[in-house]
Task: inverse folding
């Protein structure tokens, strides 16, 4: 779906555009971002040597890695960009944008964003917050008066942070459509609100975190009601046009869109075209955008220079939400927030209609990696690719820099191993999970994990890298090395020794 998924989860022509050293410029030096050039090879202070040979070696190694992953994951095409210190170091296409027409991917190739688009919706909301037109802690019933009684305590902040408790219609948790909408039918805005009103509340607002595309659809509706404009037009007017993001827009199958790629799914080992959905679900605010790596580089520089919002607004967007029990959850407003080996990472994934995408911003390192693919998220891993590419430029963020800690609880590690072994064929040993946790293990989630684990291959090793006691519960983080790539497994055990949380994430 358009969500960022916590758990998924012939040598083709490559296209490359480069310019001479004399033409290399800093994007940040151009406040209007209208004159934008990029280059594949450049020195980055503190990470790359001044030697052009070293630059070439790193660039070649990155190309070899990305192309190798494209082949291994059977991804038709990938576009990738690396931005450092306001400069686009590398923008390149690998493979095919359209398999049937044999069209190569290039930096200008347009992909669907999936949930990477949520950060634009969140930015639009914050613009209106700064103007005093929306209150983060106002109840959404103020803006959507026809809301059901169950939403009476839901705030705008809850929608932005996925803490509203409103069930997800998008298939991230539960069935696609949430049992209340048909993705092949069109709906008016009012019909969508009435349909979503039938969704159950999964928990009280702020009690927990659970990804909900529904919340971002509602944010788009709120933007429209406050401004009197369709949310896509608002984003075009306030974000895309000022930043000269000329290739970023709402999805339209009817319009002629130059450089548009096709989305694909891998079905029984065979590439198939994306499934069709109605125009309604390609125009909602949970991630219905077209873009390319060049526009996302302009976006990244605007974030770096705090051009669109006050610093205090960005600080709110990039601060983990605090749940009602006082504990933080690593998600802000349309962004995930984490630390990797002490390096702050702000990022988001997306998937929708045969596309999977990733933008990873190593904030303090001023390094951003964008990876766009045209294969479904069950079979492509742009997040993992982005993280590995980042480690070529900042080695300290790579898995190789992580040191295992003493494992004094081998029985917990054995539990992780057995849980992974159970999930691989599509089973879950519910006796190991707490009653509350069992509710989260819907068939769709188990199936998604099974597909992911099968794609990873054999588990070669697993090492404890972090342990935190939190009152009566304990959090464990493991580095799991599989045949195809390295993953992180997060486990939370409650006071009764049962599993309260279990996640598998790309490194």
Result:
């Amino acid at each position: 779906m358009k969500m960022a998924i916590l758990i998924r989860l012939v040598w083709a022509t490559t296209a490359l555009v480069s310019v001479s050293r004399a033409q290399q410029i800093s994007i940040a030096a151009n406040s209007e971002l209208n004159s934008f050039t990029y280059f594949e090879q450049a020195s980055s202070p503190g990470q790359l040597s001044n030697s052009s040979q070293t630059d070439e070696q790193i660039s070649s190694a990155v190309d070899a890695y990305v192309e190798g992953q494209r082949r291994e994951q059977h991804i038709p095409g990938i576009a990738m960009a690396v931005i450092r210190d306001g400069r686009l170091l590398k923008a390149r296409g690998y493979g095919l944008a359209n398999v049937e027409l044999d069209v190569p991917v290039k930096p200008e190739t347009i992909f669907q964003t999936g949930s990477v688009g949520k950060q634009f919706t969140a930015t639009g909301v914050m613009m209106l917050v700064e103007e005093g037109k929306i209150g983060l802690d106002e109840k959404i019933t103020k803006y959507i008066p026809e809301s059901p009684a169950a939403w009476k305590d839901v705030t705008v902040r809850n929608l932005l942070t996925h803490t509203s408790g409103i069930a997800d219609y998008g298939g991230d948790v539960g069935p696609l459509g949430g049992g209340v909408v048909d993705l092949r039918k069109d709906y008016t805005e009012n019909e969508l609100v009435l349909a979503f009103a039938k969704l159950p509340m999964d928990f009280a607002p702020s009690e927990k975190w659970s990804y909900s595309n529904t919340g971002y659809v509602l944010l788009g509706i709120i933007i429209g009601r406050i401004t009197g404009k369709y949310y896509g037009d608002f984003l075009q007017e306030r974000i895309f046009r000022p930043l000269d993001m000329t290739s970023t827009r709402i999805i339209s199958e009817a319009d002629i869109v130059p450089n548009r790629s096709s989305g694909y799914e891998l079905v029984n080992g065979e590439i198939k075209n994306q499934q069709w959905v109605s125009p309604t679900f390609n125009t909602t605010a949970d991630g219905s955008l077209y873009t390319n790596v060049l526009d996302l580089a302009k976006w990244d520089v605007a974030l770096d220079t705090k051009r669109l919002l006050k610093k205090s607004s960005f600080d709110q967007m990039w601060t983990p939400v605090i749940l009602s029990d006082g504990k933080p959850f690593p998600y802000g407003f349309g962004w995930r927030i984490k630390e990797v080996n002490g390096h702050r990472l702000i990022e988001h994934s997306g998937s929708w209609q045969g596309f999977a995408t990733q933008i990873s911003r190593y904030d303090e390192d001023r390094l951003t990696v964008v990876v766009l693919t045209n294969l479904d998220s069950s079979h492509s891993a742009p997040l993992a690719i982005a993280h590995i590419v980042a480690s070529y430029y900042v080695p300290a963020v790579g898995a190789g820099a992580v040191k295992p800690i003493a494992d004094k609880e081998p029985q917990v590690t054995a539990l992780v191993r057995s849980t992974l072994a159970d999930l691989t064929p599509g089973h879950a040993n519910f006796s190991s999970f707490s009653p509350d946790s069992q509710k989260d293990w819907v068939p769709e989630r188990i199936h998604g994990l099974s597909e992911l684990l099968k794609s990873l291959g054999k588990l070669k090793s697993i090492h404890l890298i972090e342990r935190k006691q939190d009152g009566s519960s304990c959090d464990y983080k493991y580095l799991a090395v599989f045949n195809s790539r390295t993953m992180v497994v997060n486990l939370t055990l409650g006071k009764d020794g049962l599993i309260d949380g279990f996640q598998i994430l790309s490194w």
Remarks:
- DSSP finds twelve helices and 19 strands in the chain.
- The first helix runs from residue 52 to 72.
